[in-house]
# Entry
Amino acid sequence: MSNKNYGFFLLLCSIGLIISSASGTGYHIPTVAEGLLNDTGCYIGAYLGGNQGANNAMCVNYYRKSNNAPYETQILDHPLEYGEKKTGNSNEELKETDTGIETFRTAIDVLKPGGGKKQLLFSRYYNLYYYPDNDYGKIPYTESPAPYIWAEKVLKQNGIPVLVLYPWALQTNGLLDLTAQNGYHAPMTGVAIITEIAQKCDALSKKYAGSNGKPATILLCFGLEFNTQKIVNPTGIDAGDNENKKAWRQMFRSAYTIVRAHANPSVQMVWAGNIAQTKNDRIFYWPGTDDNGNQMAEDFVDWVGMTWYPWKNGPTTLDDLAGFYNYYARDRNHPMIFMETSADGNGISADELSLKNNQVTYLYNKNTLQKYPNIKGIIWFNVIKGEDNTNQQLVTKNFLIPDGNWNNQGKSTTNPGYVYSSSNQSAMMSSRYPNAVTDPYFVGYSAPSLSADFDLVINKDSMTIICTDTSTGQGINSWKWDVNGDTKPEYYSQNITHRYKSPGNYPITLVISNGMQTHSTTRIVTIPSGYPERDCYLFIGSFPSNAEIWVDNAHKIGITTPNMMTRYLVPGGAHSISLIRDGYTTWTGSYSLKWPQVRYFGQITLNPVLRSSHQNRTDFGGIKTGILTTGSSGGQKPQGIMPGISIKSDSGIRGGSPIQDILPASIPSI
# Structure
């Protein structure tokens, strides 16, 4: 790399240092209950390295474990301040928590302006045996930040922390056990560790709530690649159950239960092994499988996933993984995430570069992913890593995106090293990756966040609903309303009015879109049977009093008093009215009213049951009745009528014939 290009790369690191000092709000990924699986798109990010810290003045170097075997590099923003012990004082606080996020984003923006804003998910691994410190590949004199310290820094940098928690050392009698203690300075049980992580993440999630006020998302991947661990799978065979797998399932269920008890729903648990192609590949590791091999009532999982490194002659398409996807993601309503992806050329550079180019072009492609809409997360493994190949020769696999290389300065741990693109040494990577991920299908914190919602008003009289859109988010330009649950939209306007033909329970679904994202919400509306809402009045009393007042012999509206001016609210339209009292003949009349009419019946004299048979239910004998009007009618006023209200005589009506004169209902209360 030329001095000019080397200086340019230093400038990128300096820019990252400046940007990282600004704090931001967190990003909220909708939960499944909030409609995540109805959203269109996928979240992306990177794993930028272990927690080994830095020991030089440059962003990246070639690190060695204690046996001098090449291990992982990582991208750093502030190498002199990352996890270093300046003195021998073990109580000295860490100077700075580094993520590498800003340097990584800046390098992408150089190649594709705006591309760096799409990076959202950032993962880091933590060995719970050393909790709250971490021994994951670190050089001897560094100290790692606790998971929640690193998580807060990611949130400040507008990323979503993905904490990968390794519980393998927590065991009793050769089986995993969350009640076992770890081996750090002040030992803690796994229960205490998970409880503290859940509580810390809950506080951070709420502290860095997004612009919509919802808690920021934090993902906890518990026991990544569980099926490769001997404590879980001592035989190396996925098929068949054993005590080790049962202990693993119980451990995951316990951890999930603790997280749900101590953290809000935005803190979500991920269950992910390595590459799997069918349901049976993972069924005995599935937390929802009980000790008898049966599916439990609950899955104890939020996200499902795997690591996927295509290799030559291996699974290279999502169709190869469809059996796993269909059962664990699609059929069980879980989002799916690739916790790691890149390519494995088995140390053969040409194969590795070809596979990586194919993978980044294939996987970061909306046409590929639209067939598998539950895939909601992809994390690229963005480090340089040393592993043994099939010939047991140590090779350093380059997982950087997609053709990154590095200069390790002769394997120095003191002289600066750096990462660069093989096609452009002034950049960390080629343009293939940022070109892919700038597609709107890939969601980043700069993309508008949509939330579908609406206000609902029900007019029970006409069986009509009025739906007013109250959705939030930028650029909403599409509304689809399904008002009867048949999944076919009936309306495409922002606000709607719909009248139902019959009573019942109807799901109303609103789907909104801004062209890049889609979100939906569903509410159930109950259209009642029976009477419309009461909107007219009757004045009626009885002698004797305490008779039940029934409309259409089906709807009780009250009990009479001796006062003929007692007012009752009744449904409009044509209805019968009955007075029923034990020991007396039922009296029945009728009315036909619509707003704002009222009807005055006066005081009804009820006849004892033992009276002569010619007095039947429709006899109006003894009724003092009339019609209230707004003007003077020259009629006589019965006793107790309000001044200014005239009564028109109606003594000639018999047999319950309706009285049609009307009065506006806006009369004073009596």
